[in-house]
Amino acid sequence: MLRNPLEDRVGHARRCALVAAGALCLLVSTAVHAGLGELVDSIGRDHLALGGKTLTVTPAVAYDIHETTTADGARIRQYVSRSGTVFAVAWSARTQPDLSILLAKQHDAYISATNAHHGNRHVFTVSTPELVISVLRVPRGFEGAAHVPALVPAGTSTSELR
Amino acid sequence: MTRRLLGACWLSVSLLLAACGGGGGGGGGPSMVTIPNVVGLAQANAVTSITGAGLTDTITTQADANIATGAVVSESPAAGTSVATGTMVTLVVSSGPPPVAVPDVVGLTQAAAITALSNANLAIGVVTTQASTAVAAGLVISQNPAAGITVAGNTAVALVVSAGPPVTVPNVVGLNQGAAATLISGLGLVVGSATNALSATVPAGDVISQSPAAGTAVAVGSAVTLVISLGAPVAVPNVVGQTQAAATTAIGNAGLVLGTGTTQNSATIPTGSVISQNPAAGTSVAPGTAVALVISIGAPAANTLPVTIDSGPASLAAAGGSANVMYATVTVCTPGSTTACQTIDHVEVDTGSIGLRILSEVLTGSAVPAKFQDPASGSPLIGCVQFADGYSWGSMVVADVTIGTRHISNLPMHLIGDSAAGTAPTSCTNSLKSENTVVSFGANGILGIGYWLEDCGSACASSPQTGFYYVCPGGTCTPTTVLQANQAKNPVGLFTTDNNGILIDLPAVSPPGAPTLQGTIYFGVGTQANNALGTALVYTVDGFGELSTFINSLQYRKSFIDSGSNGYFFSSSIKQCTTATGFYCPATSTPETATIVGRNTTSATINFTVDNAEQLFAVSNLTAFPNLAGSNSVGTGLSSSVDWGLPFFLNRKVYVLFESYSANGTSGPASAF
């Protein structure tokens, strides 16, 4: 569902309070997890934290795709550049994977954006210089993709990152 | 000649170039011009041409059979002659064909008369026939203008030709139509139009009246029109309320026949009896007239649920209101009670989720849903539901629920935001915002009637799943398994009939939108006349509820149809809005064409339009927008989806076929439209 943009001006004060609460959560989550913007050696920890069953690595021209699948059918991909940095993540799952793990340092930006969100509950998109993310609530599951624009290797189309 | 004048010459027409050259060569002598050809031109145009060439003119007239009146027949000196400027040119203008004397054609045959008139340069006017005893048939009786009069050539001469001696129209009144026709044609007359009329005195099929009347003298070949009797008028009997059989007998006994029969719901007329008739009782009609009947099929089916698109619950409307959200009203009662009930309006109808969820804050009446205890642990069962931007958390309960006219006892449902549920764990919240109030949730509740019978299904029955069901003994919440029967249930799937799906029927909305919109949800697919598939095709979806869409030859394989999304959401280069974030703001209305392909390969072409969302929202008081659209990928790789939201449902009957049911031989889960 979605409301008129008018509502956002009215509801501004309420949302600011929620933004503050989200930032508080972030301090806890980034201290523990790796993911977007972290180094490749964080992926093994993520795999375990996400309840991964299999982990495969598929090389592409400018990056490697580290794909975790879980026992309940979730598929999570982390894209690692030649310099060893996770620059994009994507997921397809029945329920949302732990995004504090996958988004890592960018998780607070995501939370702030959702608190400012007046789109419908099935579609959430944000595009900032620090984080580009789309989350879709499909009838029985979630599809998501996110990347940090500055970290995407030259010559890589973001449409590949899914 | 100065340089300036020379330039003027170069700009002139070719005729004058010769004059310039002549002037240059002749020193100070008169300028020479060539006489233009004006033969055939209208006089005014010819004079313009002559004077324009620096000449003068004089006019004489002359009759001419070949040149139109007022046009130039000849000129002198002849065209092309080079003469001095100011020379007089004589124009001879046609005064039309030469006058002729009208020849005498009376007494000639019609053909000979026409030849004679043509030879005399006259036209043939109207030729009429007239009975005559004096002049033989086929000869000219008279002419106009009369012979000897001088007229302009080509004048039309009208002729009256004899049809021979007159015929007396016979009396055919009272004869049957066939005999009347025989008599009329036997006298060299023809039968004109025949019309019908009711008559209490003239038997059916006989002539009531004729024109011209009997005894009139007319020319051979004249038409006689007839009025034929349909017989005595019959009064249509009153058959309303009678059984179809009794009505049929009464209609037959009256000399009438049964017309078309249609069926219609009626709460007052028993099934199989007549609701209405046409023509109405007492009307006088011809014997054999058909009487159409509308037959009752009984009281309207109790499988409907009214739905509304409007600004939403009052608290939400005060904060700006909702856009493209479809709401219904449900009644929630304490289990086992018919009086401890509360009617709850503005419950969002969502085909993108499953289960009835009510915001705890709106349950202010006497209805008290019963908390559901997890059988294994004895702890209260708590439900979680995750969205793209947040989550909702609250106790799982059972209540007696009425939706439309359908009643469900002990429906497992979700109470959102009740204090007894405590704080949601991180595995439910994902650190996102809570949507546990009417304003943050956007509705007083949600009625999830999508493809499935439970919100989680067998996965949650076999192993604990994050993001669905929890128990919180000692304040620590962990996911737990829940039997499918105890999960948040699709209420329609629990009906005893009409439980295999739904049909959502919303009317068309003209751009930019409508302040409110009323529609109907029909329970069941193909179970009653009002939810029949008709010409709709069935498009199956996969386990995620997804099917494919193609736009501009690109495939969006993870597309879905969802009444809970408030626009068309897809990847496009259309300009994004700046204030209405996530929506498209094209400079002008932008048409799009897409093809939806079910997993069963059934396909449909869909045309839709994207309007500027900020301009739509700027129109006050609108809540239903047919052309609202937005982006779902903003430059990520997640361009694999088209979200066919609520605008897709406008002016289109959209069916949802539940899992484990089939329609037209195709198994659900599926959509049909």
Order of helices and strands of chain A: HHHEEEEHHEEE
Binned strand content of chain B: 25-35%
Q: How big a fraction of the residues of chain A is strand?
A: 25-35%
Our Rg estimate of chain B from Cα atoms comes to: 45 Å
Unreliable segments of 5+ consecutive residues of chain A? 1-33
Q: Roughly how much helix do the residues of chain B carry, as a percent range?
A: 10-25%
The low-confidence runs of chain B, each spanning 5 or more residues with pLDDT under 50, are 1-28
The spatial strand order of the largest sheet of chain B comes to 40-39-36-37-42-38-41
**If you consult CATH, what is the topology of the largest domain in chain B?**
Cathepsin D, subunit A, domain 1
Output mean pLDDT of chain B: 89
Class by SSE composition of chain B:
mainly beta
Rounded radius of gyration of chain A (Å):
16 Å
Tell me the name of the CATH class of the largest domain in chain B: Mainly Beta
Describe the oligomeric state of these chains in a short phrase: heterodimer
Number of helices of chain B: 11
Q: State the helix count of chain A.
A: 5
Give the CA-CA distance, first to last residue of chain A.
25 Å
Report on this model:
The complex is a heterodimer of chains A (162) and B (673). Chain A is of the alpha+beta class and 162 residues long. Chain A has one domain (6-160). Chain A contains five helices and seven strands; from the N terminus they run H-H-H-E-E-E-E-H-H-E-E-E. Chain A has a seven-stranded antiparallel β-sheet with strand order 1-2-3-4-7-6-5, covered by helices on one side. In chain A, helix 2 packs antiparallel against helix 5. The longest helix of chain A has 21 residues, at 12-32. Chain A is globular. Chain A starts with 5 loop residues before the first helix and ends in a 15-residue tail after the last strand. Residues 1-33 of chain A have low confidence and may be disordered. Chain B has six domains: 3-94, 2-Layer Sandwich (Trypsin Inhibitor V, Chain A); 100-162, Trypsin Inhibitor V, Chain A, CATH 3.30.10; 167-229, 2-Layer Sandwich (Trypsin Inhibitor V, Chain A), CATH 3.30.10; 235-294, Trypsin Inhibitor V, Chain A; 304-494, Cathepsin D, subunit A, domain 1 (Beta Barrel); 507-672, no CATH class. Chain B has a seven-stranded mixed β-sheet, with no helix packed on it. Chain B contains eleven helices and 46 strands. Chain B is mainly beta. The two termini of chain B are 86 Å apart. At the A-B interface, helix 1, helix 2, helix 5, strand 5 and strand 6 of A face loops of B.
